[in-house]
Specification:
Helices cover about 35% and strands about 25% of the residues. The protein is of the alpha/beta class and about 300 residues long. It has a domain of about 70 residues. The longest helix is centred in the C-terminal third of the chain and has 15 residues.
Length: about 300
Amino acid sequence: MGSTSLTVIITTYNESKDLLDTIESVRANTNCDYEVVVVDDGSNDNDGELIAASPNVSVIRHLERIGVGASREEGTRCATGEVLAFIDGHQRFTQGCLDQCWVISLDHNAIVTPDVCGFEIGDRLLHGAFFVRKTQSPPFSSEWRFVTPRQRITSISSLRAPAYVIPRDVYPKVRWSRLLRGWGGSEACVSLKAFFTKTPILHLHGPISYHKFKTKFHYEVTWDEIWRNHALIARICFSEATWYDYWLPDVFHEHLSEATRQEMDSDAVKAEHLEFQQIKVRPDHEFWTRLAFQKLPPAVNQ
């Protein structure tokens, strides 16, 4: 397969009809040269068989579910596009939505996300998201921006839900951890890495990505899994000192099993930590003073 302008990576689990409609929406509303990579994360409702004959679509199938972040990371390995678009298996797009995001991402060397709206009549239009530091729940979160921006392109501080596009040259700086499992923390991982590497996250006002916001999960999600993923993000993105002096004792210790605490010191986690520290350009303290807008914890040195 030769190189393309855009690779659309779709992660799916038991979505069948929605998945076919999502692919058709991409096909009907995208004008640039594109390919579609579907990562079927352990479905048992024939997701993969339904799209096997679709033109310009390749499928990666998992025998068992591994999770959103790890599946998206895997999808990039067979992508040929100069820009990567990450979407879910339950989305629709206005005409030219992904094309416009693709152009802006290359022009600004940035992550770009369009307006987002739910499927239901009366759902509000969402204009990107901003980072929120939680204190009584897993710490890395975000909230939607409801105010209509005055400019077509604005800077935002966090991703919250697909769709978003990332230039291939930028992706290695913000990639999902290969060790994420299940659900939880996938957008936070990319958002935090973008902050520490000074990678812009931009919102494009105008084109719309419609997203089916579900009232309940159609797979098992546990708090242990979510806390584990957030701990992994902190372990990778922050320095050793900040992890051991602040994040582990003050935030994560009581929420992690002994096995998970040991995992945070495994060779695999240490390797990802070192890999990211070598490309990180912001110091840890700027997370609180520039992103979370909170007082610096005493355990974190300036």
